[in-house]
Write a structure and sequence with these properties.
CATH architecture: 4-Layer Sandwich
CATH class: Alpha Beta
Number of strands: 12
CATH superfamily: Aminohydrolase, N-terminal nucleophile (Ntn) domain
Structural class: alpha+beta
Order of helices and strands: HEEEEEEHHEEEEHHEE
Shape: globular
Number of helices: 5
Radius of gyration: 16 Å
Largest sheet: 5 strands, antiparallel
CATH topology: Glutamine Phosphoribosylpyrophosphate, subunit 1, domain 1
Strand order of the largest sheet: 10-1-2-11-12
Length: about 200
């Protein structure tokens, strides 16, 4: 691959995780924003609310994250007004997939995890730059994904409690942060249950 092609698909650092537990979904990401070896910000937001019970967590260019999540959030609001019911997690993920695929010639440099809960229960989907859509029970994306995935694979169990799930996500991101210089500076959580979305921040 040429240097130009490599730079075009350059993925800035991040450690971003999604995980299904018994009563919902946790989405989380650390807060460091980097470009190459330079730390651009220590307060970057990489988790976003899409609808009342749907969220997204991203790794990549922050500007692309913001464009993508705002567009899907707008589509979710229009759907709710027209259909008189909230958009399902699967539908939100498909809308996001379509947006990414339609931009494939000039792609949004972003990896995304979409998660939430609806009448079918908790659900989680992973999307790449071109919009490939894969369901899963847990996932990690970004430069720290390899380290985080090892921790998730070792500790994940079906029907985990919210407390155990949060502790596992925290452990996975901390493990990645210790080994990935492009990740760090705290963690933002979206905890999605039938009651709605709870946002939390963990500093370290």
């Amino acid at each position: 691959m040429s240097d130009e092609a490599q730079s075009r698909f350059y993925m800035p650092g991040a450690t971003t995780i999604g995980l299904v537990f018994a009563d919902g979904v946790i989405l989380a990401s650390e807060k460091r924003v980097t470009y190459g070896s330079m730390i651009m910000s220590k307060t970057g937001k990489k988790v976003f609310k899409i609808a009342d019970q749907v969220g997204a967590a991203c790794a990549g260019l922050v500007s692309d994250m913001q464009i993508l999540t705002r567009e899907v959030e707008a589509q979710a609001k229009l759907f709710a007004l027209d259909a008189k019911r909230p958009m399902t997690v699967n539908a939100a993920a498909k809308v996001m997939s379509n947006v990414l695929f339609n931009r494939r010639m000039i792609p949004l440099i972003i990896q995304t995890i979409v998660g939430g809960i609806d009448d079918s229960g908790p659900a989680l989907y992973v999307l790449d730059v071109l919009g490939s859509l894969l369901p899963d029970t847990y996932a990690a994306v970004g430069s720290g994904a390899q380290m985080a995935t090892g921790v998730l694979e070792q500790g994940y169990k079906d029907k985990m409690t919210q407390k155990d799930a949060k502790n596992l996500v925290l452990k996975a991101i901390k493990s990645a942060v210790r080994r990935d210089v492009m990740s760090g500076d705290g963690i933002d959580f979206l905890i999605i249950t039938k009651e709605g979305i709870q946002e939390e921040t963990f500093d370290f």
